[in-house]
Design brief:
alpha+beta; Immunoglobulin-like; five-stranded antiparallel beta sheet; about 35% strand
Length: about 180
Amino acid sequence: MFERITEDEERGQVGIGTLIVFIAMVLVAAIAAGVLINTAGFLQEQSEATGEESTQQVTDRVQVIGTVGEDTDTNGTSDLNTFNFTVTKSPGSSEIELTDATVQIIHPGGSSTTALTQDDIHGVGDNSGTALTSDNDRLKIQLGTAVLEEGEDATFHFTTASGATTTVTVRAPDSFDDGDTVFL
């Protein structure tokens, strides 16, 4: 059944061949393990970045705490043509720069998307600038790009640089006078 090898030369050659095959297998396994470890590290970094971006899209949004509509043109018609939104950052948000935000407005006259500028943003109280940095910061966003007549409504979508969106729907009262300011 088993053949007995009596020559010493043949015995050594079989051992060296086995050793070479073993070393080759160890090298291949080491290279494969290195590739797997590098791939796992890359995937971990990518998943952490995706997680951070997803968190920002959920948390880094503005919170509208007050809305006022004004009839600033005195042309004899009752329509709201300027909207003031008092905003703060949502709980858990990091700093939000409002000049990097956009507003999509959908109203009876159509829709539009506009980027906020420094002219649209005004400080409230001691706050100034265009960024919401602390939980106590309040800024006013003033928009004059929609016109609402009595009983009409409009939807405003505020989207921050991280992609987080806050939606606010306002409805003009059923009656108000030319030149009025109304809380919405």
